[in-house]
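Hi R.,

As promised on Friday, here is the backbone we talked about, encoded as structure tokens. Could you run it through your design pipeline when you get a chance and send me back a sequence?
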């Protein structure tokens, strides 16, 4: 909103007309994915921005092991997290937010806060449709 309380319109022309428009939409899909949001927010709240695979699994009980693995691989591939494997038995694997991943925390937390604040309204709207 601007000073007069008007909503600022966001132009999609920059995304649709950009030479890398497909890549931009693909990245927006990744960072908008529910698991990516939860993983980035979860890692941002961990000591040293790090967590083991099993700690992440416990922190996000609804995620399957397979989806956790897929999401972490994608976030690693795109530079949002790093993976460190320790030569132990059993192997210990830690994931850490990168500087790029941490830069996403503020907007991601904003989305989480918005959902928390507005969930009851969305729920009411859904119930009206039933």
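Update: got your reply. Pasting your designed sequence below so it's all in one thread:
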């Amino acid at each position: 909103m601007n000073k007069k309380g008007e909503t600022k319109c966001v132009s999609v022309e920059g995304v649709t007309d950009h030479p890398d428009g497909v890549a931009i939409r693909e990245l927006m899909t990744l960072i908008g994915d529910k698991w990516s949001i939860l993983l980035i927010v979860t890692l941002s709240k961990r000591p040293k921005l790090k967590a083991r695979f099993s700690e992440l699994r416990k922190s996000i009980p609804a995620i399957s092991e397979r989806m956790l693995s897929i999401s972490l691989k994608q976030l690693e591939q795109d530079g949002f997290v790093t993976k460190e494997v320790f030569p132990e038995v059993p192997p210990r694997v830690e994931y850490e937010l990168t500087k790029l991943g941490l830069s996403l925390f503020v907007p991601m937390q904003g989305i989480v806060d918005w959902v928390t604040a507005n969930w009851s309204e969305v729920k009411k709207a859904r119930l009206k449709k039933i």
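One thing I noticed while checking it: Strands lie at 50-52, 81-86, 92-97.

Thanks again,
M.
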